[in-house]
Write a structure and sequence with these properties.
CATH architecture of the largest domain: Roll
Structural class: mainly beta
CATH superfamily of the largest domain: Mannose-Binding Protein A, subunit A
Distance between the termini: 180 Å
Length: about 750
């Protein structure tokens, strides 16, 4: 506390040369001195002293007091005197006092303090008093002792003109720093006024002036006054003294400080709200201030109200369009708030603006100080080229297209908007250009015409992939083709990707068909049918090959698809190709014949069965088998009744069948000791032998006899059984049997 020298009725020391420091100071300790910035008394820099390296070497804000120290020279190891500028309120810095004290010129020393009565030019209040003291590089006086007040009262009388011959015309009041506005007489420990002083300060206001009454016999007194009083004519100044306020209140939200960084008494700071912000939300209050009163209480405002934004623009006055996208910023009704009016894609204002930004601004019209500007315009202009797929329009770049204007779209070649048109108009609407359906690829040519026995679906579409049904009338069909050999009565015509019509059948002409195939060519024959054509009237030729003929001896037969849808009916037995054979051997008298074919049985297959005739009627064919039959009741000697003749391609096999009459019954049966050689045959001239078994003989001792088939009966119809003999000797006396006749058929028995 540099002012405590006053307690010893001394002042801070005036350092006139380095020897003062070398003699008084402790090493490496800094001391406050009476060297005060802003005045040339005493010398502002210690003579023959150097600035401490790395320190502040000139006065600047926050470093206004000059301090000195005795330090060791790092080169010579001798002591040296250094100085620097630093804060005037550093508690670690010591002070050097001198007695008697020293005062600047025009100041008088009083109990260690330097005082001066200064007139306030034109009168004024506390701020003018502070300015008056600042003009003499001092601050308001703060007397701490009653004796100082007494001496100051005498000086005040002298200053206002009181002499031995004249008295004051009115009470004189001089401003001082004595106050307890913060509830503390010490100004935060800076002063220490005695009770003999503070007991005199009993007024209703916290500030006190030194007053001397008109009568010189009347004692001085202290007059309380409010900070608003502004009729003072004098002020009591003290040197040195506090020359600045502490740091001012910090700026609140949304404001800036209009300040020159001065903290001297009388310094004034304006706290200005940012545009669109208002003190405590009051639209009529945009700034607040504070003044440095020094010892009179520091800054007049110890706290600053925040600036807040409030709604100042009226959004209800803005137009609203459903087709315009409105985007508002946060707090858009506050100053500088914004609203974006964004047109839909491909839309703009008549000025060709797609995004309009309007702001809440402070305009010059006092009646409406805040408004959204510029006013928005409607999005009524279509921009960009109207797009229609597979089409061109008569849109031009130089024209302006407003809502309800139109352009014409024309489809590309072989494209349509719909089944009937390739031309449409599209309008500029509030939502942009109309959206037209795309022009689709189409078969613009007519599909195949309907002629004859044909009918067709109604045509409602001709786009790619669409099909049209075609149908023949009942019992009618489309002609078969190699690609479509099966007859059909229904077909489709399709619009292809190459934009032409294509039919599912080759010929869209309906007619009657033979649905079944013609008779196939038999083995050995060929057919000239193409396996496809079956229209009514189609002829198919069946032709035998390799010299063969049909059963009617023709080489070729023609069948035709008739009007009734059937092929010409042909006897199946006719459709056989064979080689014709030469006539077979003639029939013997009484013979008959039948015809068969190798590997088959059946009828004549074109040949005539003739019975009881000696001539045969053809034709006769290779592969034919002719069976010659004996007349009834006849057979060959070996029992055969028929013989089959075959043709080998050159000649018939021989006819070696002899038909003989047969006995109608079997010969007599051999019983007992009798045996025979009958085999079951009984043809004319056949001889059957009978013989007795061993040790037996007929009654006439004959052992064998014969019977012959003659004229349809046996010559012997009754044969006696053999008789058994008693001894071998009897048997040996039996005469030998007669020899067998030539026609006798022997037996192996």
């Amino acid at each position: 506390m540099p002012f405590r020298c006053i307690d010893d009725r001394s002042s801070l020391a005036v350092i006139r040369n380095p020897a003062d420091v070398m003699r008084l100071a402790q090493a490496n300790t800094y001391y406050y001195t009476y060297h005060v910035p802003g005045t040339s008394w005493p010398t502002p820099i210690i003579p023959d002293a150097t600035c401490d390296p790395g320190s502040v070497c000139a006065e600047e804000p926050g470093a206004e007091c000059l301090v000195v120290a005795k330090t060791t020279n790092p080169v010579t190891s001798d002591f040296q005197v250094v100085y620097k500028y630093q804060s005037c309120e550093d508690p670690s810095t010591q002070h050097v006092c001198m007695y008697p004290g020293a005062c600047p010129p025009t100041f008088f020393l009083m109990t260690g303090g330097c005082f001066k009565i200064v007139e306030i030019s034109g009168g004024g209040g506390v701020e003018e008093a502070l300015a008056a003291c600042d003009s003499v590089n001092s601050s308001l006086a703060f007397p701490e002792y009653e004796r100082v007040l007494q001496k100051l009262a005498r000086r005040l009388r002298e200053e206002v003109g009181e002499t031995h011959s004249a008295v004051l015309s009115a009470q004189a009041d001089a401003v001082m720093a004595l106050n307890n506005v913060r509830g503390d007489w010490t100004q935060g420990g800076l002063y220490n006024p005695l009770a003999e002083v503070t007991d005199k300060a009993t007024g209703p206001d916290p500030y006190y002036a030194l007053s001397v009454p008109v009568s010189p016999e009347s004692p001085y007194f202290l007059t309380s006054f409010p900070l608003t009083r502004n009729n003072f004519t004098h002020v009591v100044c003290q040197h040195p003294g506090p020359i600045s306020c502490e740091d001012p209140p910090v700026a609140g939200d949304n404001m800036w400080m209009d300040w020159d960084n001065s903290t001297k008494p009388g310094a004034f700071i304006v706290y200005r709200c940012y545009p669109g912000y208002f003190v405590n939300g009051n639209i009529s209050w945009t700034e607040q201030g504070t003044t440095c009163l020094g010892q009179m209480g520091g800054w007049t405002a110890v706290s600053i109200l925040n600036c807040t934004a409030i709604d100042v623009c009226n959004a209800s006055s803005l137009p609203s369009w459903p087709e315009v996208v409105t985007e508002v910023s946060e707090n858009h009704q506050t100053l500088n708030g914004s609203i974006n009016f964004t047109c839909l894609d491909n839309m703009a204002t008549i000025q060709n603006i797609s995004v309009q930004v309007i702001n809440c601004i402070n305009q010059t019209d006092p009646a409406v100080p805040y408004a959204y500007l510029p006013p928005p315009e409607p999005c009524n202009r279509c921009i960009g080229i109207p797009e229609v797929t597979n089409a061109d329009t008569d849109w031009t770049e130089t024209a302006t297209y407003l809502v309800n204007t139109t352009v014409t779209a024309t489809c590309n070649v072989s494209h349509l908007f719909n089944f009937t048109t390739d031309l449409l108009t599209l309008a500029c609407t509030a939502l942009g250009w109309d959206t037209l359906p795309p022009c689709y690829p189409a078969c613009v040519a007519d599909p195949p015409a309907v002629v004859g026995n044909l009918e067709r679906d109604n045509i409602t579409d001709n786009s790619v992939g669409v099909t049209i049904g075609y149908r023949c009338l009942p019992l009618m069909f489309f002609p078969p083709t190699p690609d479509q050999p099966t007859p059909v009565s229904e077909a489709t015509v399709t619009c292809q990707s190459n934009l032409t019509w294509a039919s599912s059948v080759t010929n869209l002409t309906c007619g009657k068909l033979c649905l079944k195939p013609p008779p196939p060519a038999p083995e050995g024959a060929i057919s000239d049918w193409n396996n496809i054509t079956s229209n009514v009237g189609t002829e198919v030729n069946l032709t035998c090959t390799d010299g063969m003929k049909f059963s009617d001896r023709s080489v070729a037969i023609t069948v035709t698809c008739e009007d009734d849808g059937n092929w010409t009916t042909i006897d199946p037995t006719l459709l056989i190709c064979r080689r014709e054979a030469i006539p077979p051997p003639s029939l013997l008298p009484g013979m008959t014949f039948t015809v068969s074919w190798a590997g088959t049985t059946g009828g004549s297959n074109g040949s005539t069965n003739t019975t009881g005739s000696t001539s045969l009627t053809g034709p006769f064919w290779e592969g034919m088998e002719l069976t010659y039959h004996c007349p009834n009741n006849t057979m060959s000697p070996d029992g055969e009744t028929q013989v089959t003749l075959t043709y080998n391609g050159t000649t018939w096999s021989s006819l070696d069948l002899v038909c003989l009459s047969v006995c109608s019954s079997a010969p007599p049966v051999a019983t007992g000791f009798l045996s025979n050689n009958y085999t079951g045959l009984g043809v004319e001239g056949l001889v059957v032998g009978y013989w007795c078994r061993e040790f037996s003989a007929f009654p006439d001792n004959i052992t064998n006899i014969v019977t012959e088939c003659v004229g349809g009966s046996w010559t012997l119809t009754n044969i006696t059984d053999c008789i058994q003999r008693k001894s071998r000797r009897d048997y040996m006396n039996i005469a030998p049997p007669p020899p067998l006749p030539p026609k006798f058929i022997s037996s192996d028995d």
